Amino acid sequence: MIILLLTTQEKVGERIASRLRSKYNYIVQTFTNARKFMEAAYDEGPVRIDLLMADYLSFLNDELNPFEKMVEMESVVPFIYYNTPFAKSGHRAEYWYNKIVRHIKSYIPDEKVAGLVRLFTQIDEIISSPDIMPYVRLLNEPPEINDEEDAEEDKNTFLEGLKNQYGIHNSRFRVLKYLYDRIGEDVMEEDICSDLWNEYSERKTGVLYSYISELRKLLCSPGGNGKPGGRRLHIERSGKRSYRMVICQGGQE
Description:
By secondary structure, this protein is α/β, with parallel strands linked by helices. The protein has 10 helices and 7 strands. α8 crosses α10.
């Protein structure tokens, strides 16, 4: 069995080809150029080539129509789009076969058409495998953009920038991040000490006060924590035993 495979995803195409070679001992040649792929099909022809497999995206920006060109060249070979978006999962083999019967059966010997059912089933099983399917374009719904993940990434980037720029020690950075995660909220010192150090004592309260004092000085320093639009972070006392991190405009507190 000789198969020519055209893909816009070289690694994915090679993985499919490798599986066909190792599992069924088929000869598979991969291409990333549509015209070279079709030239090889014309040169070898239906006498040697058993199947042409192509990425559905391969011809979208090309005037070349593979079906019409094969008929024109009188060199018709069974042809499928391995990632057609029009076939439901588990029904690709049937879809491919029906397309062959409908469009080019008259150009291909009946015995060759009959043998395609088994071949298409094998290809569908390979494409559906968990180490291939997730990477094949058009066969998967694109994941939705997660605004929460983007916001979390932006937050971490900003905080890490502060830490690196001003050499904030890890112990102080934990307090900074804890308050930033609860920005705008009144946070009791008991909660901070308990969550960060599993201990609420006079000693830990003193450590917390010292760290927050250092962070306040840092955040109020020239250029200390500039954010887009001139916004700045500030840690304020919101109560006798509570703190709150806020965003101030233009450095105003």
